[in-house]
Design a protein that fits this description.
By secondary structure, this protein is α/β, with parallel strands linked by helices. It contains 7 helices and 7 strands; from the N terminus they run ααβαβαββαβαββα.
Length: about 200
Amino acid sequence: MSTPPSYFETMYREASDPWHLGERWYERRKYDLTLAALPRPRYRSAFEPACSVGELTVRLAERCDRLVACDRVRSAAETAARRTEEMSHVEVRPLAVPAYWPPGTFDLIVLSELLYYFDTAELDTVLALTVGSLEAGGTLVAVHWNHPVPEHLRTGDELAVILRRVPELALLCEHREEDFTLQTFGRRRGDGSAPCSPAAAEGLV
């Protein structure tokens, strides 16, 4: 069974930033690595579910022409919205996936510290929605904590195995540490080929 909404509501009731995302060097470094793992310098349209208070959202906004973000906890989404209110190309909504999924397609989807909260059925739904809305050649980034947590149904390493098995996705890079696993995938093109590497995109190989 997926982690219940009451868990998140309780966490944010006790603190506006319960995971201290804006304070910890661990988090800032992880965000830097997440952005460095993006194979393109800029994206047309991105989606970031479970954006929390917008620490990563602000950073992603610098690389995107349009960014849609959401979080199931209203107070967290409102904080993220305030932090990006001067960025007209960013829209933050108090909504939860997979019940909500924005219309249209994206060339970047960021699943950060999210997938381990879903049971198998909901995880399958989220991955199907991700693949269905990710444009051919688009980028998916997934990064997840590796240590066991009572509210987490899987670790980052376990999710990495599941993601590598999605046939529509081609693994572009993988960064593993004791604390987290970061993967970047490209949505396969119609002929089944993977997107080209950053070096190939600039004609270096």
